[in-house]
Amino acid sequence: MSLPKEEAWFHPKKYGYGWGLPKRWQGWLVFVGYLVALIVPTFFLRTPKLVVAYLVYVTLLSVVLVAICLATGEKPTWRWGDKPDE
């Protein structure tokens, strides 16, 4: 369930489906944490087995990010440019 527009952490995308950049500090914290969690493990990838494990890790991390966006962002809908608020 999404938060009301005035309390949401993430803006909806202008074009397409989903969310764009965060609009509250909590959203920025989640977004930066996601980026750090993606980048730091790349320094330790030495074998092909670790690369496969990293791909699984990225997938799970992305699922968690989408779940957070669903819970704290505006309702995701298909958008095509600027529309007046409903």
Helix/strand layout:
Blueprint lengths: L9 E3 L2 E2 L2 E4 L2 H15 L8 H25 L6 E2 L6
Antiparallel strand pairs: 1-3, 2-4
What key attributes describe this structure?
elongated; 86 residues; two-stranded antiparallel ribbon; alpha+beta; 2 helices; two-stranded antiparallel sheet
Report on this model:
This protein has about 90 residues and is an alpha+beta fold. About 45% of the residues lie in helices and about 15% in strands. It has two helices and four strands; from the N terminus they run βββααβ. The strands form two sheets. A two-stranded antiparallel sheet has the order 1-3. It has a two-stranded antiparallel sheet with strand order 2-4. α1 (about 25-40) runs antiparallel to α2. The two termini are about 20 Å apart.
Gap between N and C termini: 18 Å
**Adjacency order of strands in the biggest sheet:** 1-3
Instruction: Report the principal-axis shape.
Output: elongated
- What Rg is obtained from the alpha carbons, in whole angstroms? 16 Å
Order of helices and strands: EEEHHE
Total of helices: 2
Number of DSSP-assigned strands: 4
> Helix- and strand-based class?
alpha+beta
**Which segments are poorly predicted (pLDDT under 50) over 5 or more consecutive residues?**
none
Mean pLDDT: 87
Largest sheet: 2 strands, antiparallel
Q: What percent of the residues sit in helical stretches (DSSP H or I)?
A: 40-55%
Percent strand equals 5-15%
Structure described in brief:
With 86 residues, the protein is of the alpha+beta class. Helix 1 (25-39) runs antiparallel to helix 2 (48-72). It has helices at residues 25-39, 48-72, and strands at 10-12, 15-16, 19-22, 79-80.
